[in-house]
Amino acid sequence: MAQLLNRLKQVLDKSIKVHPNELKATLVSFVIIFILMASYFILRPVRDAMASDWSDSEVSFLWNLQFFISAAIVSLYGFIISRIKFKNVVPLVYSAFAFSFLAFYFLTPLFSDPTFVEKSFYIWVSAFSLFHVSVFWSFMADTFSKEQSKRIFSVVAAGASAGAIFGPMIPTLFAEKLGLDTLMLLAALGLIGVVPLVFYMYHLKAKDLHNEELQADLSQAKLKAQWWTGFKAVVSNKTLLVISAFILLYVFIGSFVYFEQKNLLADYSRADRAQILGGIDWITNTLTFILAFFVTGRLTTKLGMAATLALVPFIIMAGMLVLAFAPIIVVLLALQVTRRAGNYAVTRPAREMLFTDVSKDERFKAKPVIDIVVYRGGDAVSGSIFALLSEGFGLGLAAISVVGAAVAAGWGALAVYLGRQYDGVKQQFSEIKKEA
Questions:
Q1: Is the pLDDT of residue 165 over 60?
Q2: Cβ(313)–Cβ(342) under 8 Å?
Q3: Do 261 and 170 belong to one domain?
Q4: Is residue 173 domain-shared with residue 249, that is, in the same domain?
Q5: Contact present, 298 and 410 (Cβ < 8 Å)
């Protein structure tokens, strides 16, 4: 047994390469991102369970409002981090979110009609989803040196995957027994627990890591001060324009599936919805973890970028057609799991590679515009379109699924175009390198 443990330690030392003085900081970082991801995936099914009680028009309005609120929060965040020491920003952000969710927990029962508070909660969780991971990785850049990050960040990232798998299990197993309010409280308490860990990390940064002089490079935040430069880059660069269109079509498909899911779950209680949605999150995150380890890296090398990017869109197109002929919840939920796991494990990593085709300056200025403004704008527009189709024109699930299949076909065609462009540039670069 002792030999087995020693052998395991040797394997871990070779694969992870965490130095003794880095061990505490690595473990605490792992725990922080684990709690953050688990808390978010406890809140997410609670948020989405509420949406089934609202009409398509109401949810569409929330998505439009969410777009403007997200843009305002991003601008405010950029303003704050350019004027306050980053070490003070991290606990401030997590404390603000923790106490805001505590406020929702205590305020909701005080209203005879809590709809306004619940809709505010719906928007606020979406805002939280934008920031909690982004702030964390900036925090990591402020804590570990560049050399340390190469060895340690993969271990920390495993904490994010573990939290994303563990978090949905709570609502899946206990939503009916605990109730949605208690789930909200658990997530808030988890975020409160993160704050002292953040302060402890700053202690370890100086005492164990000896990185007290290290500061995160927040130059990207300064780019946000000239807000128009990112928009100009997107409009003036053809590759960025096509990537933006690709993102929009992905968002449109996600919105169609989300609204159909919302409507099919309307007959269930909120606790049952939270259990179902938590189960979807758990299956999705587990499948993503497996695909990322065993499939994703092989796809682009064996199939090329065009086939890799187009794989999920064409699978979704087929799934939409199946849903049109069998508009039942089992088919829809399978489609949702396929779409999200495929995006996280295949489409998103491949999509990020596309940004290597543009200059570094364009990449850093345009990426926040595409990831936030284009994405949230797509939510707003697609939500309005779905509400128009369902409540305006009276289309049912089958008819809307056919429309979704057509959108997915366009998404797939655009993916093939982007992939061929990328593969062509990559081949040209390889030929030039060989000649040199």
A1: yes
A2: no
A3: no
A4: no
A5: no
